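User: My advisor, Dr. K., asked me to get a structural model of this assembly before our group meeting. I'm new to this, so sorry if the format is off. These are the inputs:
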Amino acid sequence: MRHLFALVDCNSFYASCEQVFDPRLKGRPVVVLSNNDGCVIARSAEAKAVGIRMGQPFFEQQELILRHGVQVFSANFTLYGDMSNRVMEVLRQFSPHMEIYSIDEAFLDLRGFRGNLEEYGRRIKSTVYRWTGIPVSIGIGPTKTLAKIANRISKHHLDTKGVFDITDHPEIDRLLEAVAVGDVWGIGRRFVKFLNSRGVTNARQLRDLPDKFVKQQMTVVGLRTVTELRGQPCLRLEDLAAFKKNLLSSRSFGRPLTERSEMEQAVAEYAALSAEKLRRQRSLASAVSVFIETDSFRQGPQYGNFATAGLAVPTAYTPEIIRAAEAALAKIWLPGYIYKKAGVLLSQVIPESDFQLDVFAYDGGIRIKRSLMKAMDAVNQRWGRNTVYYAAQGVQRPWGMRQKRLSKRFTTRWEEIPTVKA
DNA sequence: TCTGGGGTCCTAGGACCC
DNA sequence: TCTGGGGTCCTAGGACCC
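Assistant: The format is fine. Below is the predicted structure of the whole assembly, which you can bring to the meeting.
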């Protein structure tokens, strides 16, 4: 049977989440900032219209923001994660097979669907909006890459009303010619530069390039993209959530660090965060790496380094991960620098089930460690992150994130649930 | 002038995504 | 004053083996 994909993408997702819980924000320019209130990472349509740029530092756009009365929010990932789950639950009702591609996007498998696809898409769109308050756009096509393009078209052309099907479109060439080559999924900055230098500027030209040339210059990855543009699927729907082979927790500090004791706390904090992610996907790690770096935007001596410490036995036990992280940090720590960022990477990750214990041998206390972690995760799940934590993570945390404009956790904390006054 | 022919595994780095 | 965070896949090249 012929393949058919729908890509459902939430419009200005983070900004839309903020708008759901404060109706006064509807129709007004809204932006959401990255951690530490650094860059703009989401903009409502109105914010785009007044010229706020994506990924640009907040302070550079402050004048524009003031002039247009743009509402500004610190990133509230607890809220966005929960809203994402709600949207995905609604989508699940419209197709037996679905791939959650990112926090705000999902592919639906529509193979074998009979009837008017765009009409079906509009039903999906209005149901998601009514049940969650989040507006979405939907692109439909015979390959994921074409569904992505159809999605772009649905966003840019008002007459599509947010849903566009590109399958067997009579004017496919004209449509693809209107898509810049850099807007094709899988074509990044480097290849745009290369392709432009060869006179290839739009998706239609890319589609019509000879296989041999594409493979030579852009590897099999590029060839897949081109083949998909021709309507021949190379990428399947990935039903199951991908098992992560690396888990990274890293963060810039709210203010720079110079003391080793503070760096140790920050690294312990990120190690604990990574260990939590590890347990969430029921896995164990055998290697812990740490990196630290100074602020490249500032003048002054720069330093950055990376080191790994192995674990004798694969584990997800926070104290063991913290200990390994501190061993790795010891290898690279140099005093005298002003540090801005650090991170902890867990690798050689395996499913918990691959590591079976010998029933008769001493288990190294693993059962107790497991129950302890389970209890800790449950408490933190119920009462909020870091309700219980290790002393190594520090109590004061002067280096913690700046989040001056955080909205409430409307959907995950009873104390912060919105109330309606009569 | 000559310096085999494979194969596997690992790592670093590049490119991309949201 | 102020510049995000977290992933994946592929390739090339080196080490090592027979």
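One thing worth pointing out at the meeting: Chain A has a mean pLDDT of 92.

User: Perfect, thanks a lot.
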